[in-house]
Design a protein that fits this description.
The chain is 36% helix and 16% strand. It is α+β, with helices and mostly antiparallel strands.
Length: 101
């Protein structure tokens, strides 16, 4: 899927992955444990997301499934709030980087 987006939106776009380390909904959907999900998530982050500066991940520790509905709360990952991180992405801030455990 990432290969498609890299080709389809080759210039002028940024892409983000928002995830919890052991997302219980996605884990259940694929019939894997939270720990297996976390391992696969970290593999994906290492192999795909960090290899391309237009892709970054914002990862929080936990089993929740979504985080956009609560951007006004004090969620932070790596010392960066989600709302600030999304603002960096949207404004093409060169300091926008992966945040997470």
């Amino acid at each position: 899927m990432l290969s498609y987006y890299r080709t389809r939106f080759a210039t002028g776009h940024r892409f983000a992955l928002l995830s919890y380390t052991q997302d219980s909904v996605i884990s259940a959907f694929y019939s894997i444990s939270g720990m297996q999900f976390e391992t696969l998530l970290n593999q994906e982050r290492a192999s795909q997301l960090t290899a391309d500066p237009v892709f970054n991940a914002y990862v929080l520790t936990g089993t929740n499934h979504t985080m956009l509905a609560s951007t006004g709360t004090l969620q932070t990952s790596g010392g960066v709030s989600l709302i600030h991180w999304l603002g960096q992405m949207a404004s093409d801030d060169p300091a926008w980087a992966e945040a997470g455990p």
